Amino acid sequence: MKKPIRTLLTLVLTTTSLGLVQPLANAHAAAVQPATTGRQIKLSGAANVRDLGGYVNRDGKHVRAHKLLRSASLAKLTAEDGQKLVKTYHVKTDVDLRSAEEAAQQPDAKIKGVTYQFNPVVPHMNTTDFMQGDGVKNMETAYRNFVLSKDGKKAYRQLFKTLLKTPKSQAVLYHCSAGKDRTGVATALILSALKVDRATIMNDYLLSNRYLAPSNQQILAQATASGAHEATLASLTAVLGVQSSYLNSSFKAINAKYGNVTNYLHKGLGLTTHDLTQLQKIYLATPKAQFR
């Protein structure tokens, strides 16, 4: 029984059609979002695609629309999808946060006029490791490693450097496989740098459960039909979903080593005060200017 379940998990973590199962115990996942923020960009070949535009920071400024996009894998992106991302959302750069194995098995579709950057948070990933033992604890450990490992810090540092080099007229799209973990941490760091409050960051993070639930329900149904034991299903659910404890593991690890996220951005990622000021100038606007 172990072999088919592991094969299924590998497929889950390396294809665009896979999403998440909403954990019933996670009350935060049902948080109501403002109508103008957190909405999914519907594409034929990619899931969990979202524009961060519209989120309001602690100073009352809004994240500019059509500037920061998060997504799951772009391997199955159609030509029409690519055209929509370029023409409607002004995407100019595609930052791939996946491992070498994931990118090789499911390479991103080429989008005319868009520059591809391979920027792995975890250079080499063994997906079956997540199913050994307690799935929740495994995910929490992974989230700590995302922000504290040398490779993770290098990847997030490079993502910020890319954001700083991007003109106001262009957008950056960054993604992993399901668009929930490595991408979720990247989004949390970006929104923190833009002075967005923790509650808003968490709500955005948990939206992955909503947008990828249908495909994950199919995955669990397949696992159940194959005869997976209850413990295996519990681990699979934990690995496929997002929970507040996962992202909080990243924040706790940052606080323990650096004191707070701002110190992490400075000392962990090497961003200067000028960098953060520039980032806010590029990606924040007054309410009237946010959709220009």
TrEMBL record:
It comes from the Bacteria. Residues 154-220 form the Tyrosine specific protein phosphatases domain. Residues 1-29 form the signal peptide. Gene3D superfamilies: Protein tyrosine phosphatase superfamily. Pfam families: Y_phosphatase3. Keywords: Signal. The keyword Signal applies. The keyword Signal applies. Belongs to the protein-tyrosine phosphatase family. This is Protein tyrosine/serine phosphatase.
